[in-house]
Amino acid sequence: MEEKLYLYYTNDLHSNFEQWPRVAQFMKDKTEARKVRNESYWLVDIGDHMDRVHPISEAFKGKANIQLMNDLNYDIATFGNNEGITLSHDELFHLYNDAQFDIVCTNLHSTDDENPPWLNRIIKKTTVNGIKIGVIGLTAPFNDYYHLLDWHVSSVFETLDKYIKHLKQDSDIIVLLSHLGLSEDEEIARKYDEIDVIIGGHTHHLLRTGKVVNNTIITAAGKHCSFVGEVILTWDKNRKTLVNKEAYATDITNYSKDAETVQTLQQLEKESDERLGYTIIHKNHPVEVDWFKDTKIMKDLTHTLKRHTDSEIAMLNSGLLLENLPAGTITYQDVHRICPHPINPVTVELSGSELLEVIRASLTKDFMEFQLKGFGFRGKILGRMVFSGIDVETSFHKNGEEYVKDVFLPDGNELEKNRQYKIATADTFTFGRLLPEVARSETKHYFLPEFLRDLLKETLQKNY
């Protein structure tokens, strides 16, 4: 005799609330079908449900996201870097206080020896016919950030070595909720035969029908909940083993919207407007933003960054500010709207020759027009780099392309090629290959929990 078990999951919503009513209707339709047949099912989320790019998540510091999952009767969630490192220690500590579902994160620890009461190392569920399911949750170990917030994320493989054998002794099926990324999921599947299912996220990969690696089926549903995932497991009661594993990701971009969820989001939006609508300054003239010019607001913001980080030199890309600020009352909601990125200040050490390469690269047409997706950036293009603490003189080739002619320090001297300089910038550039010299720097210091928009708020209050 066989029994089917169902897991419905979301990953990497990133507060794309326009899509959430479709998720709600899909989940309600699926779970209603399971209830009619008296079949076991669970709703799970794999993290990065919250993203402070959205005013609702900003206003409620992620607690509105928890409310939305409560409304759909989620059963289990783990969390991603957007929950873990874009909130203060206290905000994350209390984020899930009102959650009506289990939170599992096996590798997160508070460094002050007091873990939040909602934090579970493992979760155990039992089907209507007594099949035992053990659930582990893992989040990506961004400890350069977590340590500044008084958290520590343990090594993925040390954590699995510690828990997986114990869990197997008391579980018929093991499920891993992984906010680690596809390559990590594949490596885990190759190393741990005991894991039956890995539901993944973080790298926004889409596996429409799953991927089998070793004994494990791996699945993930892309980003922004354009897809919702489903895992179907078939258990043979006589043989006491899984006989089939299926995974699907369903495109719900044209699915109908749940009316109740639409109303809830409208109310949350209204409340977030009230929370974020406090006055920062009153300005008689608009504040100009231009992605290809050294505007006053970007110069002032870059100066603020230099002071805030006690750096010798600072640099920020103009694409960080998305639009002009109108004349009249400027509120925090306006600040959030034009600078929505969850990006932190960072300092790195670069030699004079490395800094010169960074300056040259950042003022090329390809860099300025690059349409970056990810690394915290939520804008359109990178835009022109603006500097504080140095004067950059440029000229133009005959073909119209700009190039760096000279770089001078405030005392009129040129950069010393072999001297180390303390440079402040956006943490975006410490990842990937946008500015390799910054990413490769062996001396990085991140500033948390403040975002660049907090420095923008300070800049407006002091300079305008």
The third-level CATH topology of the largest domain is Purple Acid Phosphatase, chain A, domain 2
Shape: globular
| Total domain count | 2
Sheet with the most strands: spatial strand order: 6-4-3-2-1-14-15
Task: Tell me roughly what share of residues is in helical segments.
Answer: 25-40%
Structural classification: alpha/beta
State the CATH class of the largest domain.
Alpha Beta
Q: What value does the Rg take, in angstroms? A: 24 Å
Would you identify the CATH H-level superfamily of the largest domain?
Metallo-dependent phosphatases
Which percent range describes the beta-strand content? Answer: 25-35%
From the coordinates shown, what is the CATH architecture of the largest domain?
4-Layer Sandwich
> With helices defined by DSSP (H or I, 4 residues minimum), what is the helix count?
15
**Strands, total number:** 24
> Assembly state here?
single chain
The stretches of 5 or more residues where confidence is low (pLDDT under 50) are none
Distance linking N and C termini:
74 Å
Report the sheet with the most strands, covering strand number, pairing sense and barrel closure: 7 strands, mixed
Would you tell me the overall average pLDDT?
96
